[in-house]
Structure formats: C-alpha cells, structure tokens
Amino acid sequence: MTAAAAHGLLAPTNKLRLGTFGTNVEGGPALTTIPTRLRTEWSQVRALAITADRMGLDAIVPVARWRGHGGAHNTHGSTFDTFTWAAGVGAVTQRAQVFSTCHMPAVHPVVAAKQLATIDHITGGRAGVNTVGGWLRPELEMFGAPMLEHDRRYDLADEWTRILRSLWAEDEFDFDGDFFTIRRGFSEPKPVGRPPIMNAGGSERGRLYAARYADMAFVLLTGDDLASQREQVQSLKRLARDEFDRDIQVWTSAYLVCRDTVAEAERYLSWYADEHGDVEAADSALRTMSVESEVLGAQRWQQVRRGFIAGAGGVPLVGTPEMITARLAELSGIGIDGCLLVCAEWEPELDRLDRTVLPLLEQAGLRAPR
Ligand SMILES: Cc1cc2nc3c(=O)[nH]c(=O)nc-3n(C[C@H](O)[C@H](O)[C@H](O)COP(=O)(O)O)c2cc1C
C-alpha cells in the first residue's frame, strides 16, 4: 500500500485534482439534447481523452450505464462499456489515471480483477476502478435477477471488493460469502501498481463502504453554506480515520461553463440545460434514484433537477475564470481533494479551462505548474 501511495492520483502532486466525468456516454453526461452534445463516436471520445491528458487533468472517469432513461430521447441510451473504453483511452494517453466504472452486481470480481489488471499493464499503472452498487432498477433487472434491497447491495459490494483485493494481492485463496464462493481464487498478472478505488455511495451504508475501501470517496455537496459543506467533507474523512484507520481523499463533481462574463455563462447554461434540457429523462432518473437510493429526499427534487440536467447534480462552476478559480479554491479549503468535471460541449469548454482557469489555479498553488 505504501508503494502505491507514491504514484498517480494518490500522490500529492496537485492539491486539487481535476478530471473528466462521463465522456463515454452520449450527452456526456449532461441530460441535454443540443445537437453538438457528445456522441458515442470513438474519434470524438478518443480526441477528448487526449485533450484532457495533454492539459494535465488527473483522472478520466466514465459513467456505467446499461440503458437510457426512456422518454422521447432515451438520453444515456448509448454508452460505451467502461472497461474496454478505459483500455482504449489508456492506450492513447500518457499521464491521467483512467477509471473503469463497475456495477458490482453485474460483473464478477474475477472478471473485473483481470480486466483492470490488463488495463493497468496497458497504461503502465494508471488504471482505477469506480465501484457502484447500482440504483437504476430497469438496467440491473436486464441481467435477469431481482435487484437487491439497498443495504444488501452494499453487503454484496463488501464481498466483491474484498475478493478483488485478494485477487490482486494473493497467490491463491478461498472465499465463502453470501453472494460469492471462490475456490482457489487466482489472477495473474497482478496489476503494475495498486489501482485506486473510487466510490460515490451517499447513504449511511454507502459512506461506510467508501470509508472502508475507497481511496477517493465522493460527496454530492448539499446545503448552501460553506460550513455545512465542510462538515460533509470532514465527517467522511473522520469516519474513515476513526472507524478504519484510513486517510481518504474526498472528491466532488461539478459542471463547468466558463465565459468572459457571468451573463454569457448564464445564457449558455440556460440554452443547454433549460431550453434543451431533457426534463423527461431527468425526472425518470430522479424518480428511480429517490426510491432506490438514500441520497435524494423527494423534497429536494425540484432543487436538484436543473443541476442533474446541467451535469449529474454537481457543483455549478458557471461564470468567469476568476469566479471559477475562487469557487474551486473554496472547495479545496473545505477539504475537497478532487473534482470531476462535466461539460455540455467538451472540447471548447476544456480549451477555455486550459487557457484561463488552469493558470489561475497554478498561481493559487492549487495545482503544480505544468
Ligand atoms: C460522481 C458520481 C459518479 C457516479 N457514477 C455512477 C455510475 O457511473 N453508475 C451508477 O449506476 N451510479 C453512479 N453513481 C451513483 C452512486 O454510485 C450511488 O449509487 C448513489 O450516489 C446512491 O448512493 P447510495 O447507494 O449510497 O444510496 C455516481 C454518483 C456520483 C456522485
């Protein structure tokens, strides 16, 4: 574990790490119908990964989705598989940590361990895994088994993760659990490094899982004041330290609209998220999420809908480069270690980030000079 602590995302190279989120799904992953949204076309997706890597972004993280949210557009219906996508992205990038997002009930840990080890070899030690328990019932039911009750999904996740780690660390082992039975568990080659585990569980049980296993745990920042957001971040770090004697990174996600003026940024946001937002898809996803997960109370529905359409419910980074830098500095100040970005039109947005925000973040000491 100490050897891995020195490299990749686990190294303290950048105080505030940045990454892209969801460039394997159509819309990527904003719920917008603008004609210039990201498509599942390899040339586009590949170019985007190369851009993010060249800019020095630290992580490239896909969304695991098996079917769309229905309605007229069936947004998120078209998605690249995250493991084979990561192998392709890993082969054309040099520095970024390339994650595979894995629905643990859908992928056997023996298969996942080998796929991730293979990606780790392709990338020279840059693989990572974002473990998800699943909440979108129609997609998990496609696998022919009833979806488990919420906390049982985390019982399965617990077994799954322990098996994954054993496959990476041990020569041979047996495992007898409620969900998995492993006889003479074996996987070679081992990964080059130790691929970091990312998790975005938001419920009490999800937070416990993340505190126990994740190197990077996500918070969906709620509450309007900085003090309560700080407590959200710090309580997760405390949980990991107090219960499991672990220091973990806490990450969040954000949608990015960077323009010369606030008015311009707001106008653009309104164009892609209000005029062209797929409200039907958002309501369908939020309805399922409020039933199947504990991160979303029904009372917050209206409040979160626009953010969900604009960029997976993340923090709005909408404004001038200076405003965006100040907000990111604020997030770093409350203990956020990394932030995954969502853009409606990726290439031009990343280009603006590169030219205007990244230099300011470097000046502020939040990111190392490139
Ligand atoms: C940044 C982020 C990324 C996520 N990625 C996925 C994903 O790719 N696929 C998925 O089914 N769920 C994804 N989720 C949902 C979470 O894994 C988790 O199921 C959800 O937050 C509910 O938490 P709970 O299961 O603890 O109630 C993501 C959530 C966040 C905040």
Q: Structural class of the secondary elements?
A: alpha/beta
Please tell me what the overall shape is. globular
Count of individual beta strands: 11
Question: Ligands in the structure?
Answer: flavin mononucleotide
Helix count, DSSP H or I runs of 4 or more residues: 12
Radius of gyration: 19 Å
**Major sheet strand order:** 1-2-3-4-7-8-9-11
Structure report:
The protein is of the alpha/beta class. Helices cover 44% and strands 15% of the residues. It has 12 helices and 11 strands. It has helices spanning 42-54, 82-92, 109-122, 137-141, 150-169, 204-213, 226-244, 262-275, 279-292, 301-311, 321-333, 346-363, and strands spanning 17-21, 59-61, 97-103, 127-132, 173-176, 181-185, 197-199, 216-218, 249-258, 315-319, 338-342. The strands form 2 sheets. It has an 8-stranded parallel beta barrel, surrounded by 9 helices. Strand 5 and strand 6 form a beta hairpin. Helix 6 (204-213) crosses helix 7 (226-244), helix 8 crosses helix 10 (301-311) and helix 9 (279-292) crosses helix 10 (301-311). It is globular. Residues 1-6 have low confidence and may be disordered. The protein binds flavin mononucleotide.
